[in-house]
Amino acid sequence: MNFRTTQLLALAVLLFTSCKEETITLFTEMSAEDTGLVFENTLVETEDYNVMTYEYIYNGGGVAVGDLNNDGLADVYLSGNQVNNKLFLNKGDFKFEDITAKAKIEEKEGWKTGVSMADVNGDGLLDIYLCYSGNATSEGFTQPVVKEYAGRANQLFINQGNDANGIPVFLEQAKEYGVDALGTFTTQAYFLDYDLDGDLDLFLLNHANKFYNTLFNVKHLRNLRHPYYGNKLYQNQDGKFVEVSEEAGIYGTGINFGLSAAISDLNKDGLPDIFVTNDYSEQDFCYINKGDGTFKEVSKSSFGHFSKYAMGSDIADLNNDLEPDLFVVDMLPEDNYRQKALKGADNYNRAQTLIDSGYHHQYMRNNLQINRGHDPVGNLQFSEIAQLSGISNTDWSWAPLIADYDNDGLKDIFVTNGYLRDYSNLDFNNYTVNEAVQSAQEKGVPLDVGLLISKIPATKISNYAFKNKDGLAFENTTLDWGLTIKTVSNAAAYADFDNDGDLDLIVNNLNQPILIYKNNEEKREKNNYITLQLHGADKNTSALGAKVILTLDSGKTIYQEAYYVRGYQSSVQPLMTIGLGKEDKVSTLQVIWPSKKQTTLNEVTHNQKLVLNETDANANYIYKVETGKNFLVDITEQAQLDFTHIENDYIDFNYESLIPYQLSRLGGKAAVGDVNQDGNDDVYIAGAKGQASQLYLGNDDGTLKKYNEKQGWTLPEEKYYEDSDALFFDADADGDMDLYVVSGGNEEFNGDVYYQDRLYLNDGSGMFTKAVDALPDMKFSGGVVKASDFDKDGDLDLFVGGRLSAGNYPMIPRSALLRNDSSNGKVIFSSVRNYDIEQVGMVTDAVWEDIDNDSWPDLILSGEWMPITILKNAEGQLKNETELFGLNNTNGWWFSLTAGDFDGDGDIDFLAGNLGDNMQFSASETEPMRYYIQDIDNNGRIDPILTYYINGVSYPFPTRDELLGQVPTLKKKYGSYEAYAQVNTESFLTENAIKPRFTLEISHLKSSFIENLGNGNFELKALPFLAQNSAIQDFVFEDFDGDGKKEILAAGNLFPLRVGIGRMDASFGTLLKFENNAFKISEKQNQLWLSGDIKCLNIMKFNSGKKELLVTRNDDKAQLYAIQ
Asked: CB 3.0 to 4.6 Å from 1048: which of 204, 740, 869, 1072, for a disulfide?
């Protein structure tokens, strides 16, 4: 090999290495110099006009994208709050020209906000609608609104067509069209054809500029229409827009703080519906179009909860199930520092008062509402899973834009965020302002507002990008996609600016130049696509409301709707760019037009643009809105079951301020057994404190009959207890079912008679008498009771699991093993001393099962902050052998445990219900949650500190206000929110010289299958993704679909969590099958509608052969379902 050859080889290796190391991000930022897109929304605050006089001053400007001159290229219009707006003509190849003056776009003096593009007059040319808001000089938080203030009259620029140079020219005609909305504080305008008459109507989103008391005279306040704050609906009547808000059923109150809306046919009936977000106390609203010119507001019947400070929103089908899903952004930060610096105390009492006053449940985090379609009653239902999906925390967010940015066939999410100054910074609000006011008063000088505002901290963070991995799970790809520039971003839009088949981005920033990103998908992923331009008939020329359904060769479906005002103060390009992944052909392309005409194309090739016209459609489409199927038929009413669990009025947080949820609200269980020996199952449903439990006898036909007169538990003194569990078993060996009732709750301290369990003896006919003195001292808050003859002496013994240490969570409560020592007709149970049992943990469920086939029943337990625990029975002696069976590292927040041969291999496995992954907490063996228990201030009460990991570092969960409310002495150490926000768990313990008395851990949060490996060991395996959407409180193993094979039905949720966590309500039940050595979600999953705070599932059997599923809940109705 000569020298020349060696040089060439070395050069080749160098070039190969360089190419290999070069990384192409999905997006590349384009400079203003190269593109000609020179624009900055520069904000200048003054003494009279600032964030303290107008709170929405940092909400930013808008952006709209569309082809204004019909040359096939997307043009851009940008609005600035104080600076002049600009219109840019796309010249091709990412080159733009400022044509604002040439196009005769003449804005007036005022505070500009959102902007949208639509063909308002139906002439085939896109027009521009510009919104105005902001205060007049004399307005403010405490000043009255100026009536019909001309500075807040919106503008409508009607496209007059192109001049001789191809420049579109505009004429302002808002007043002529009736849409100037004089005096309103407008955020954005949304065009839609809500009455399907072929022209565009208008929904105008507005907001207030001052605050009313949202808890005083609420009903009147929420029903009183405000002329300038309330949202408005305008009907297009022959080219003139007429407001029809009140008669249409659109709320327009003075506490309205509308920040976005999203238009979609949510219930698939062919009519556009409207979802509206609200900031502050007023909730979001979902208006379902009834087709008669009116809307029905369905928020409470369709959604479990909403975002608290809801900002931008978007609707699209994320999981390709042909149902539109909803994403709403809020302001919860991702990192601990900003959470602690900006988020205050958990005000449960105020939140509950709002709910009691008629507002919906609201929590400060993004919401991803997955559309489940209609339930059997006909209500549209959504399941909120943003935390499970990994998209709940994106800081102070504005514009969420759902689109397939990498063209893989799954829609991704882009989110803008930022706030010029952290106006919610707690140090500023609690200290800086007060100090400044006090100083000015002492000096006798006016408050220097400019100086005060300059002290508000400012933080810039990058926008977020989330890649859709499988339809429900998302990956943060901000870095990989090249979107890491730190900005204060507001409005954003997507468009294919260079017509290369992928979506580019444009972002309007505050006090920074705009961002323009070119999409490099064609170089990186190289996926296929198809672009659709829809031309509507009549005056809806962009076919707003049209639906597109693609069916690919693989059978995969993709669904999109033609609405283009999306995100926040933004309007995207009115085209559809749809990613196909690697598939090169669309088997069927179906367009359902607003007129209910239908176009169908077959065998459509990829990587092309199609122009489709509604006038060419020659088939009709018939919408069929059907109630949801339910393979569990609700027979509650005909079965004559009328029990409702009613919780007593007790607020745990008033006594234990740091606990994660209300421990007094865990009731709602039931016991099933044949108490009158007629061959039919009967049921005892446990009541709350102050509520008598109820016995229902089963009849041959599956109906129930109350049987409570003169029963032992109906005496007045028996209502004193909170029944937390119950069990039918034969206590006295006389052949009938007696009843053990566990007393639980958190209202009294340990040792109180309130917690004494009770035993009721059956006379054989179903009449029960309390067995006095049959039980030992059981004065602890229990949660579960299970029976077995653990000592093999021929009678049934009991395990009673301690649920909690009342008033001292999370201290370990007492549990008890009760030996049946009954003889000579006298029923006696004795407590067996066993430390492994007595201090085992906060037990939630128990199973007696002989897992090692030695004929002695072993005891398996689940519980909070403890592992799945196995107490091996060595000939009547129970010993904790959890480690021996391989389960010592399974600490979880376990709620339920069920035994069965679920994998069909001949041995006993277990299913364990856990807290799930749809919440802020995360846990693993390397990054566990921990509970540190100690008395920090030596006042005789424990100060438990819950900690968990965020981005690889452990932090205390309580906010500063919550911590100081528990331990006031720590205020010396943490004199500011800033000081506390910088503390992690290690430094918190160290600098306060805290030496915990006890430490509890959680390393698993996923509900799991515990497989018996057959060699004396068990292995924990997580259940499928969807099974982690909420806490699982119970399982049943039964053949629900009649195929001869048993399925697993799981149900749960958990409502009484603190406000900062928010109630878990996403689950409607989960149906699992074991196939091909793995658990899979059943194809009938969407036919499950088991909502609510479910605590217990029971199968009831009857002489007729019927099987029925009993579902009992906390603070809610019990229900009975026929199993088909």
From this structure: 1072
